[in-house]
Structures are given as C-alpha cells and as structure tokens.
Amino acid sequence: xxxxxxxxxILYARQLKQELPSKRDAERARLEDEFEKQFNSPYAAxxxxxxDDVIYPRETRARVVAALDFLxxxxxxxxxxxxxxxxx
Length: 88
Prior knowledge:
Layout: H1 3-11, H2 13-18, H3 21-39, H4 42-47, H5 60-71
Helix pairs in contact: 1-3
C-alpha cells in the first residue's frame, strides 16, 4: 500500500468504517483526491522543508552547469593529524 490509497486506508480507517457501504467508495475516492492535491506535489514538499528547491525542466541544464562550474576549482582540505600513531 503506497501513495494516497495506502495513506487514506491508514489515516481514515475509522472514518471509512462508519460510512454506509454504499457511500464508502465515493468517500474513499474523495479523500484520496484531497490527499493527492495536498501532499503529492513538489511545492508541498518544499514548503515543509523536505526539499531545498523546485527546479523546472527548462532550468535544469543551467543549474547543473552552474553547480559544476562552482565546484571545478574546489580543493579538498586534509585535516591535520591530531596524534601520531605510536607503536605499542
């Protein structure tokens, strides 16, 4: 069970059991649509801090080039040894 269907089954199980059997499928579909609209977008994930930024497809190449250009001259700094390795 993944996605909106699984989430609705878990989160709204009690509410769906209380519905009449004739209306249960319609209510489940309404809850799934509501869940997808609320949580199934990159903008919702960005608003909650799960991702840093939303990049449109037309901007992808420029963003990758800029990131690689920024990193091309990067030097890794080796941390100095704090202690020598004495033989025991």
